[in-house]
């Protein structure tokens, strides 16, 4: 049981040591600690997973009572079932590869020590999030990863733009987190506990399916999930979060943290099953997000922003899966997405690293022969992202689309939307590949990725291909999905659509049979692409709706209008004081005269009133 | 009550006149010495009124009050002259209109 404690403790301790060393640690030691602690942690997870696979027993571990207030005494306790094992494996496994990669990527950075401190802290917080036995501890991890995301997005803090991006990420997710906190309060007051398993039992006994309370509670939880997972309408922070170092984008903004919302919904699926309305909303949010982000990805020219939008889009697929009740498929897609998106981000990082921090895909080109390992990684990653047959993404996305198809009433609509998204995914992912790696070279790479970068890339390539055949130990975690016999034509369509996307991308960006310039020559098309490029102008909309009014109010408030009343009183008394000051002229004779006058006056009054 | 009989009213009118003289002196004179002297005149006018009233009602209280006022006047002069000395030393003048440093 002790090894379970070590899993989050090792990264936490390493983070503490790295922070306390205040950056004075030699590079070698810092990177050894940073990557090594995650490696050891991953080893512990592997041991735990193998023993779990052997006996399939759910492990519960209580360390201590966190606090005790009245009837409410949340514990520091871990609950480890198949879902947790899957998440822990992803976090530590991919986390280790990304840490290893980071050693080379960040080697020249002056703040290597700080980087590894934040990264280790992030892994610890993320592990806490998935291992937590109660929602309060989960919330601690949830906020911890949010903090690390903020710190790492703004890692190169000397550029004010990065700071702005970090603040945006923090504030936008905080909106969702507030909703989630309210949801937790509601659950605690209504059901009296935050321990996840008792909570689900209590909810099932106290609430009927479709009641108002479960709908409200799950809607609030969904708010948190939407913020963290960058779904509509709180998705605007993720493209800007690409300001951080690329391995950070790979770990936090692709593989792990942004999927925390998916994990939250899957973890509390018992509540969501009681609220069909919320579940349907999850599906629609997922669909809308995946389409909007896919269109936006088509128009970007920053390599990382394309990947960011594709991440939003893929998490939309996961939400779609959760919304149609295919929880296991959602988690499956989470895992395969973690593989291939981490691969794509790391490959993009390698391109950026070898090309003097070049981000614009139109200034790349012809890298196929110059960076062969990166090219292979990108092709495999894009194939998996586009869900070409026999890659990992194919199996998971196919499962989601079939689950959507099988749903009553709205199912075919969701399926059609998902299919359109798959087509767009094929186009934008191979547009990226064709533009960056084919054609003529515009920037020459000045170095080749070393083994610390190439190794993780190759491993993730393997995982991106075979990841679809891994059987996740999710049996017993989720209710068994009813399997409907699906028409074979549906399956053929979902296989064919990504290939169609690939073909279209080839014709447009490599073969030249479809001229992009001609397509864009229509004024409407140009405007549409600009619209997509700006991410459907969500930023401008929010600027108009929230940021500007908020700033206006803040500006007005800065003059402290409430204080005007008290300042007025002060001004009035000062004015009176100045008027009365005339009497106090310091002249003795004047005082005496006034006294006499007063005396005469008093005397006159008394005499007048005398009987 | 033989001898010179002066009606009480006359004496009180004299006392009133004396008091008014002292009051106007206090209000109009600028020299602190004259102001103090005016005060003395006012005190004495009050004392005169007491004595007159005591004589009129054949009570000793009036004379007791006269003694008290005399004492008070002496004390007042002692303090007042000390102040005069200080004022002279600080302001090099006895004009009270110029010693108005307590102006607000």
Automatic annotation (TrEMBL), chain A:
The keyword Magnesium does not apply. It is an enzyme of class 7 (translocase). Residues 428-533 form the NADH dehydrogenase subunit 5 C-terminal domain. The keyword Hydrolase does not apply. It catalyses: a ubiquinone + NADH + 5 H(+)(in) = a ubiquinol + NAD(+) + 4 H(+)(out). It is found in: Endomembrane system; Membrane. GO terms for molecular function: NADH dehydrogenase (ubiquinone) activity; NADH dehydrogenase activity. Residues 66-116 form the NADH-Ubiquinone oxidoreductase (complex I) chain 5 N-terminal domain. This is NADH-ubiquinone oxidoreductase chain 5. It comes from Seongchinamella unica.
From TrEMBL, chain B:
It holds the Pfam family Oxidored_q2. This is NADH-quinone oxidoreductase subunit K. GO terms for cellular component: NADH dehydrogenase complex; plasma membrane. NDH-1 shuttles electrons from NADH, via FMN and iron-sulfur (Fe-S) centers, to quinones in the respiratory chain. The immediate electron acceptor for the enzyme in this species is believed to be ubiquinone. Couples the redox reaction to proton translocation (for every two electrons transferred, four hydrogen ions are translocated across the cytoplasmic membrane), and thus conserves the redox energy in a proton gradient. It comes from Seongchinamella unica. It catalyses: a quinone + NADH + 5 H(+)(in) = a quinol + NAD(+) + 4 H(+)(out). The chain crosses the membrane at residues 12-29, 41-58, 64-85. Belongs to the complex I subunit 4L family. NDH-1 is composed of 14 different subunits. Subunits NuoA, H, J, K, L, M, N constitute the membrane sector of the complex. GO terms for molecular function: NADH dehydrogenase (quinone) (non-electrogenic) activity; quinone binding. NCBIfam families: PRK05715.1-1, PRK05715.1-2. The keyword Transport applies. Its EC number is 7.1.1.-. It is found in: Cell membrane; Membrane.
């Amino acid at each position: 049981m002790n090894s379970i404690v070590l899993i989050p403790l090792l990264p936490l301790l390493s983070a503490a040591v790295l922070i306390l060393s205040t950056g004075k640690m030699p590079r070698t030691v810092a990177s050894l600690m940073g990557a090594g602690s995650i490696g050891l942690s991953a080893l512990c997870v592997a041991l735990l997973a193998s023993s779990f696979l052997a006996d399939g027993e759910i492990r519960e571990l209580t360390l201590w009572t966190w606090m005790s207030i009245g009837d409410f005494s949340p514990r520091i306790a871990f609950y480890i079932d198949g879902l947790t094992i899957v998440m822990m494996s992803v976090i530590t496994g991919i986390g280790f590869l990304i840490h290893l990669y980071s050693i080379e990527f960040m080697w020249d950075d002056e703040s290597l020590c700080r980087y590894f401190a934040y990264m280790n802290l992030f892994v610890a917080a993320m592990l806490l999030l998935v291992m937590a036995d109660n929602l309060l501890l989960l919330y601690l991890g949830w906020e911890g990863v949010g903090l690390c995301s903020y710190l790492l997005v703004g890692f190169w803090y000397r550029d004010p733009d990065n700071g702005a991006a970090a603040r945006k990420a923090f504030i936008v997710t905080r909106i969702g987190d507030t909703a989630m906190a309210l949801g937790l309060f509601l659950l605690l007051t209504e059901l009296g506990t935050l321990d996840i398993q008792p909570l689900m039992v209590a909810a099932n006994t106290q609430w009927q399916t479709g009641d108002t309370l479960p709908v409200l509670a799950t809607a609030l939880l969904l708010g948190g999930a939407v913020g963290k997972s960058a779904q509509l309408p709180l998705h605007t922070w993720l493209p800007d979060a690409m300001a951080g170092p690329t391995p950070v984008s790979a770990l936090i903004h692709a593989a792990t943290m942004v999927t925390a919302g998916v994990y939250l919904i899957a973890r509390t699926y018992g509540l969501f099953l009681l609220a069909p309305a919320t579940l349907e909303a999850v599906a629609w949010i997922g669909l809308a997000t995946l389409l909007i982000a896919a269109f936006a990805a088509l128009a970007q020219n920053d390599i990382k922003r394309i990947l960011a939008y594709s991440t939003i889009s893929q998490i939309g697929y996961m939400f779609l899966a959760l919304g149609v009740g295919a929880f296991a498929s959602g988690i499956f897609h989470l895992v395969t997405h973690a593989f291939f998106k981490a691969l794509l981000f790391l490959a993009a990082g390698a391109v950026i690293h070898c090309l003097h921090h070049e981000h614009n895909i139109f200034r790349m080109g012809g890298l196929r022969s110059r960076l062969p390992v990166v090219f292979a990684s990108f092709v495999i990653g894009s194939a998996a992202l586009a869900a070409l047959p026999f890659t990992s993404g194919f199996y998971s996305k196919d499962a989601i689309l079939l689950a959507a198809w099988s749903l009553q009433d709205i199912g075919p609509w969701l399926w059609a939307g998902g299919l359109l998204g798959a087509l767009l995914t094929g186009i934008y992912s191979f547009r990226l590949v064709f533009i960056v790696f084919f054609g003529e070279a515009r920037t020459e790479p000045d170095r080749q990725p070393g083994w610390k970068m190439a190794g993780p890339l190759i491993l993730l390539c393997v995982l991106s291909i075979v990841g679809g055949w891994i059987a996740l130990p999710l049996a017993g975690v989720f209710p068994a999905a009813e399997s409907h016999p699906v028409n074979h034509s549906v399956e053929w369509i979902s296989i064919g659509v990504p290939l169609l996307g690939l073909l279209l991308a080839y014709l447009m960006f490599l073969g030249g049979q479809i001229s992009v310039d001609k397509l864009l020559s229509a004024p409407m098309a140009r405007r549409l692409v600009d619209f997509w490029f700006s991410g459907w102008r969500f930023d401008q909309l929010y600027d108009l709706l929230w940021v500007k009014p908020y700033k206006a109010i803040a500006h007005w408030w800065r003059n402290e209008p409430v204080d005007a009343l008290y300042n007025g009183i002060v001004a009035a008394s000062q004015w009176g004081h100045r008027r009365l000051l005339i009497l106090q002229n310091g002249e003795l004779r004047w005082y005496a005269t006034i006294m006499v006058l007063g005396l005469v006056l008093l005397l006159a009054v008394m005499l007048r009133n005398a009987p | 009550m033989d001898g010179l009989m002066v009606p009480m009213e006359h004496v009180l009118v004299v006392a009133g006149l004396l008091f008014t003289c002292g009051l106007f002196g206090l209000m109009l004179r600028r020299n602190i010495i004259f102001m103090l002297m005016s005060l003395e005149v006012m005190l004495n006018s009050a004392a005169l009124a007491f004595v007159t009233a005591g004589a009129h009602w054949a009570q000793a209280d009036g004379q007791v009050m006269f003694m008290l006022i005399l004492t008070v006047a002496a004390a007042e002069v002692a303090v007042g002259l000390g102040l005069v000395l200080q004022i002279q030393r600080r302001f090099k003048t006895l004009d009270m209109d110029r010693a108005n440093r307590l102006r607000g």
